[in-house]
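Action item from last meeting closed. Structure (387 res):
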């Protein structure tokens, strides 16, 4: 039995047990997500289900380090764990008593800064397929991006904060965010298979999927949640999904000089990208495109109608599909299917040369954009019910 499968089985069992225990305690203590006019569920459903898969994730990191010390990236993963725990705790606090959005944002920025300080982050937007004849121009390009590392750090922090909130926004239908995260993580794993250097991220993806499946058991018969993950679980989930494509097995990339660039040329004159083990921003974003697009549409809607950014609403993709009389299971099926298609396109694009790669990547973005435009257009007559 492989280490990944062994760890995944343990993670599933542990998550199932911890979620079940949380469900019992939540019912006894009446820790319910009480129904109101904005909620789409019926009745009072226990919350804090995120405790199960969050604790499982942290416990399994310790187990992996004990069983196979060289599997993960060691001490560099500690800031990531602290950031994830911070997001989880602020979400748990928000589950019990609403916290002003500025305080949640401060904690999320703190988590993003920790990720950046740990040496994880973006340093390019696309894969580049360079040739010896274009070396001069691209050396200048590489040197330019190397001299603005502070900007990439800002982009990384913005990415982490954005994905945390975007994943939380789509957590509105039973099984939607957890199921989406499973498919997105599976897409990441497939991407890592074709782009070496992400052994740590691959096993963390497997742990996350197994942990979420242990939680999703309590949505059976699907989708009929017996317990919600809550804001704590959603914030943690968003943070991990934002961080997974940033965790590679290499040391922090230092300055690039002419010698190091020349060393990257293969014998046939083709260029081996020195950043090959880092996922470019637009490829990583493809796997998170559904919550990103959902947040983008909601933000522009608020700006257009002069509505405060933290006002409760019913303008997200699951609300719009519900307005079109799509049942919860149908909403999950739509989002899952869309995520599978987009993830496969993103993975396939990473295996192609420059122009085909950009074509397939653009296709993934276009499919999601058209989906959101069509759903939004069909919802135009429901405008008065969106708040």
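Sequence:
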């Amino acid at each position: 039995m492989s280490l990944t499968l062994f760890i995944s089985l343990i993670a599933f069992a542990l998550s199932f047990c911890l979620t079940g225990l949380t469900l019992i305690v939540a019912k006894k203590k009446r820790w319910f997500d009480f129904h109101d006019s904005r909620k789409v569920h019926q009745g009072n459903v226990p919350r804090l289900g995120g405790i199960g898969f969050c604790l499982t994730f942290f416990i399994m990191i310790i187990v992996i380090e004990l069983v196979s010390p060289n599997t993960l990236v060691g001490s560099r993963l500690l800031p990531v764990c602290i950031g994830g725990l911070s997001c989880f705790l602020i979400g748990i606090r928000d589950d019990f008593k609403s916290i002003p959005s500025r305080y949640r944002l401060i904690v999320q920025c703190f988590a993003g800064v920790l990720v950046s300080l740990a040496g994880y982050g973006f340093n390019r937007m696309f894969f580049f397929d360079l040739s010896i004849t274009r070396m001069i121009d691209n050396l200048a390009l590489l040197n330019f991006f190397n001299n603005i590392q502070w900007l990439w750090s800002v982009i990384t922090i913005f990415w982490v904060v954005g994905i945390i909130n975007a994943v939380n926004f789509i957590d509105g239908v039973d099984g939607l965010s957890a199921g989406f995260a499973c498919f997105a993580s599976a897409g990441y794993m497939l991407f890592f298979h074709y782009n070496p250097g992400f052994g740590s991220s691959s096993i963390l993806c497997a742990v996350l999927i197994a942990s979420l499946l242990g939680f999703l058991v309590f949505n059976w018969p699907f989708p009929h949640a017996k317990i919600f993950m809550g804001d704590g679980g959603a914030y943690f989930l968003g943070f991990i999904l934002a961080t997974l494509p940033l965790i590679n097995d290499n040391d922090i990339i230092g300055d690039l000089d002419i010698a190091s660039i020349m060393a990257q040329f293969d014998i046939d004159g083709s260029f081996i990208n020195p950043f090959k083990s880092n996922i470019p921003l637009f490829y990583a974003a493809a796997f998170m495109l559904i919550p990103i697009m959902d947040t983008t549409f909601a933000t522009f809607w608020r700006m257009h109608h002069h509505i405060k950014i933290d006002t409760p609403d019913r303008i997200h993709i699951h609300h719009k599909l519900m307005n079109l009389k799509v049942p919860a299971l149908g909403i999950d099926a739509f989002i899952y299917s869309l995520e599978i298609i987009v993830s496969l396109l993103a993975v396939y694009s990473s295996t192609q040369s420059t122009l085909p790669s950009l074509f397939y990547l653009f296709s993934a973005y276009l499919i999601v954009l058209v989906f959101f435009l069509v759903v939004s257009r069909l919802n135009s007559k429901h405008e008065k019910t969106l708040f």
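Note appended to the action item: The radius of gyration is 21 Å.
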